[in-house]
Amino acid sequence: MTKSVFRFLSRQPETPELYGDHHLLRLPRFADYRQWFAARDGSRAFLQPWEPTWRADELTESAFRLRVQRNTQEFSSGVAVPFFLFRREDMALMGGLTVGYIRRGAAQSCMIGYWMGEKYAGNGHMFAALKLAVPYIHTGLQLHRIEAACIPENWKSVRLLEKAGFEREGLLRKYLKINGEWRDHLMFSRLAGEPTEIGTP
């Protein structure tokens, strides 16, 4: 295990939980499967245009258990913090936000990705999640740079990132294979030292 991983683990709780007035971000658990299945299956047509092609076993319980195990390993190794987003009043699983591709050394950066169940989309929930995640990334993880990329046609994601204080940097040509096709992505970033308080959507 590298020194940077030791540093990462030394300042992180075993199971990080980020609380807002109405939202909670925490690591996935095996017991979340039923809610996760309902959220993903019920939002299939809504999510698939913006995501990598779903595998045939994408929504099976065995695939979910492997996903949770991999998430736990990635967090323990210091390379990712995969959060599920819950509504605190009834602990409904609404979506997810992953802090991934954590790079230490000279970079001190990460890439975030997120998804939202269709029935919860457009109501400010992911904006609230970013208000919890951004200070955690800069202060808790001590990362200097947060990156995010989205398809240019995904105007909702573009607007979300801009409202959350991310700056547009440019276009990444054929950056990721989305729904079976290589797609251009807009790159956004937010740096430590910029205003930590995210305004209202």
Keywords:
single chain; eight-stranded mixed sheet; alpha+beta; 6 helices; 8 strands; globular; 201 residues
Average pLDDT, rounded to a whole number, is: 92
Binned, the helix content reads: 25-40%
- Silhouette: globular
How many strand units? 8
As a percent range, the share of strand residues is 25-35%
Helix/strand structural class: alpha+beta
Major sheet details:
8 strands, mixed
| Radius of gyration, whole Å | 16 Å
What is the N-to-C order of secondary-structure elements (H for helix, E for strand)? Answer: HEEHHHEEEHEHEE
Count of separate DSSP helical elements: 6
Low-confidence stretches: 1-11
Spatial separation of the terminal alpha carbons: 41 Å
Placed side by side, the strands forming the largest sheet appear as 1-2-3-4-5-6-8-7
Describe this structure in words.
This protein is α+β, with helices and mostly antiparallel strands. Helices cover 31% and strands 31% of the residues. The chain has an eight-stranded mixed beta sheet with strand order 1-2-3-4-5-6-8-7, with helices on both faces. β3 (81-87) and β4 form a beta hairpin.
Summarize the structure.
With 201 residues, the protein is of the alpha+beta class. The protein contains six helices and eight strands.
Topology:
Blueprint: H1 3-10, E1 17-19, E2 23-26, H2 33-41, H3 44-47, H4 61-77, E3 81-87, E4 92-103, E5 109-116, H5 125-140, E6 145-150, H6 155-163, E7 167-178, E8 181-191
Parallel strand pairs: 5-6
Antiparallel strand pairs: 1-2, 2-3, 3-4, 4-5, 6-8, 7-8
